[in-house]
Design goal:
With 291 residues, the protein is α+β, with helices and mostly antiparallel strands.
Length: 291
C-alpha cells in the first residue's frame, strides 16, 4: 500500500512540476496524500449531515417537522434540494470571495499568486461593488434588512468555503483538517442556528419556491373527500409526500397567523388561483387575474 502511494506521489510530482508552484509540490508526499484522503472522507461525512441543517432551520422557523419528508420519497427530494443549494452556494462562494481569499492564503504561505486567482479577485471586487450598489438602491425599501441579512449570510458562507478550498490546495493536510473542524463544526452551525437563522430559512424558502413546493407561495386547496367540497386559500409552507403545511388566509382577521396541516389525500392544489362560491353554494377554483 505504501509503495503504491509512493508511486502515485512521484507521478503527480512529475506531471505537475511544469505548472504547479514548488511549495505545493512539497505537499505531494505519501503521508500528506494519506491524510488528505482521510480529511476528504470526514468532509463527505460532514456534508451528508449538513444537507439537512438548512431544512431544520426552515422547519424551526415555522414550527413544523414533516416526518414523512425524511423517509422514502422524501430522502430523494431532500438530496435533490441539497444539491441545488450546494451548487448555488459554491458558485456564489467563488463569485464573492473565491479569488480574494485564495490570494490571501497564497500570500500567507508565500506562494506566488497565479493569474487565474488575480483574474478571479478582480471579478470578486466587481461583484461586491454591484452588491453594494444594489443595497444602496434598496436602502429605503421595507425589505432592506432582509436582503442585507441574506447577502451577509452568503458572504460568510463564501469566505468559509473559499478558505477551506484554498487551504486544501495550498496548505498542509493538518491545516486542512483544522480548517474543516473549526469551520464546519463551530462557525457554520453558529451562523445558521444563532447568528443568521432568518436568512438561512430564506435560502431554503427560495429553493422550495423555485420548485413550487413551499416558500409561502399562494395556493388554493380544495378538499373533495366530503359530501360538500370546501376550498381554502393560503400560503404554502411545505408540501411533503403525505401532508400539506400551509398558512390559511383569513380575510376577516388579517393578523391571524397559524399553520394548518392537511393530508394530501383527496385534495386538489392550485397556484395563482382563488376560491369562489357558485350559485349552488358549492366552492369552485378560479384562476386569478395577475394583470
Amino acid at each position: 500500500m505504501k509503495e503504491f502511494i509512493n508511486n502515485i506521489s512521484e507521478e503527480l510530482k512529475e506531471n505537475f512540476k511544469s505548472f504547479v508552484p514548488e511549495q505545493i509540490q512539497q505537499n505531494i508526499t505519501p503521508t500528506n496524500i494519506f491524510f488528505r484522503i482521510i480529511n476528504g472522507s470526514i468532509f463527505l461525512f460532514l456534508l451528508s449531515i449538513y444537507v439537512y441543517i438548512p431544512f431544520i432551520v426552515y422547519m424551526d422557523t415555522y414550527n413544523i417537522f414533516p416526518y414523512d419528508f425524511f423517509t422514502g420519497e422524501g430522502i430523494f427530494a431532500i438530496n435533490l434540494f441539497s444539491i441545488y443549494i450546494s451548487i448555488f452556494v459554491i458558485l456564489m462562494s467563488f463569485s464573492l470571495f473565491g479569488g480574494l481569499v485564495g490570494s490571501l492564503v497564497c500570500s500567507i504561505h508565500k506562494i506566488k499568486v497565479s493569474n487565474i486567482l488575480k483574474g478571479l479577485s478582480i471579478f470578486n471586487i466587481l461583484v461586491l461593488f454591484l452588491f453594494i450598489v444594489f443595497l444602496t438602491e434598496i436602502s429605503q425599501n421595507d425589505n432592506f434588512w432582509e436582503k442585507l441579512g441574506f447577502i451577509t449570510l452568503l458572504s460568510f458562507i463564501s469566505i468559509i468555503v473559499s478558505h477551506y478550498v484554498a487551504i486544501s490546495i495550498f496548505s498542509t493536510s493538518k491545516n486542512q483538517f483544522l480548517s474543516m473542524m473549526i469551520s464546519f463544526l463551530f462557525i457554520l452551525p453558529y451562523i445558521f442556528f444563532i447568528f443568521l437563522p432568518s436568512p438561512t430559512s430564506q435560502l431554503v424558502s427560495n429553493t422550495l419556491k423555485s420548485f413550487g413546493i413551499g416558500g409561502e407561495i399562494s395556493i388554493v386547496i380544495k378538499r373533495i373527500d366530503r359530501e360538500k367540497t370546501d376550498c381554502n386559500e393560503g400560503k404554502l409552507i411545505f408540501l411533503s409526500p403525505k401532508n400539506i403545511y400551509f398558512k390559511p388566509i383569513d380575510k376577516k382577521d388579517t393578523k391571524k397567523d397559524m399553520t394548518v396541516i392537511l393530508e394530501r389525500k383527496d385534495t386538489i392544489i392550485a397556484m395563482n388561483a382563488e376560491c369562489k362560491d357558485d350559485a349552488n353554494a358549492d366552492t369552485k377554483i378560479e384562476k386569478k387575474n395577475l394583470h
